[in-house]
Amino acid sequence: MTALILEGGGMRGLFTAGALDAFLDADIKIPRCYGVSAGACNAISYYTGQRGRSRAVNVNYVNDKRYVSWENLLDGGSMFSEEMMFHTIPEKLLPFDYDKYRDVNPDSWAVCTSLLSGRAVYIRVPADLREEYRPILASMSLPLVSKPVRYKGDLLLDGGVADSIPAAKAIRDGADKLVIILTQHDGYQKQQEKLLPMYRVWYHDYPSFVRTASRRHIVYNQSLELIRQLEKEGKAIVIRPPRPVEISRVEKDVRKLNALYQEGYNAAFAKADAIREFLGE
C-alpha cells in the first residue's frame, strides 16, 4: 500500500498545492493520504480533481481581511476565519465539489494535536464535508492564533505540533511505499520553538501540550532521519523545495506565493515518471 504524506507550514503549503496539481496533470492517484495542517486542506481539492483551486484560495484571498487578519483574531479568537474558509469560499466564491468528494470518499486522514493529552490525533476526513469539516479545521488551527476545535470530547489544534511529518504513522498503518511532499528544503533541521515561553503562559492549563511543543523539533528531525532512511531503501520518494523557502507562515506577497506554487509544480512534475514507476503503474 502506498501513502501520500503532506507536511503543513501555513502559506508554505503553496508548494504542496503546486505539487498536487502536477499529480493531477500527470494522472498520479494515491488513494491514502495523511495531511497535516495546510496539507490536510490541500488534499481535499486533489481528491476532487479541482486543479488550481488550492492555489486560488490562498492567492486570491490572502489579502482579504475576511480570510486572514489580526482583526479576525481580536474579534473571533482565530486569525483565519472559519466562516470564510469553510462556507463563503467553498460555497460561493470558489466552489468546492462536495458531491465529488463524497463519491470518491478517499482514505484521507487529518493530523491534529490534542490540547488535553499533547498527543497526535489522526482523524479520517469525513466523506460529507458539508456536514463535518472540523477535522480539517482543527488540523490547520495554529497555536496562539487559533481557537482550539472541540471534536468528540477533545480539544484539537494544529497537527504539526505533535506529528509534522506522519511517515511513521503511515508505516504503522501498513504502508510500504511513501510519496512525501515536504515544505522545507533538503538539509533543513528544525530548532526549538521560539515562542515556547508564550506557549507556557497561554497554555498553562495544558502541560502535556506544552511538553509536546517543547519537543517538536526533536520529533520533527527524527522524522527527517526516518525519511532519509526510507529514501535509501527505495521505500519513499520525496518532493521538497529546491532551496530554502523564504516566506512566512502567513505570507501576503502574492508574487512569492505564486512562485512557490510553481516551484512545487515543477519539482513534482519532474518526478512524475519516477513516481508512476514507483507505484507500479
UniProtKB/TrEMBL annotation:
GO biological process: lipid catabolic process
Motif (DGA/G): 158-160
A molecular function (GO) term: hydrolase activity
Keywords: Hydrolase, Lipid degradation, Lipid metabolism
Segments forming domain PNPLA: 4-171
Motif extent (GXSXG): 35-39
Coiled-coil regions, chain positions: none
Motif placement: GXGXXG: 8-13
Signal peptide as annotated in the record: none
CDD domains: Pat_hypo_Ecoli_yjju_like
Active-site residues from the entry: 37, 158
Entry-linked Pfam families: DUF6363 (PF19890), Patatin (PF01734)
PANTHER family: NEUROPATHY TARGET ESTERASE/SWISS CHEESE D.MELANOGASTER, PHOSPHOESTERASE
Stated name of the protein: Patatin family protein
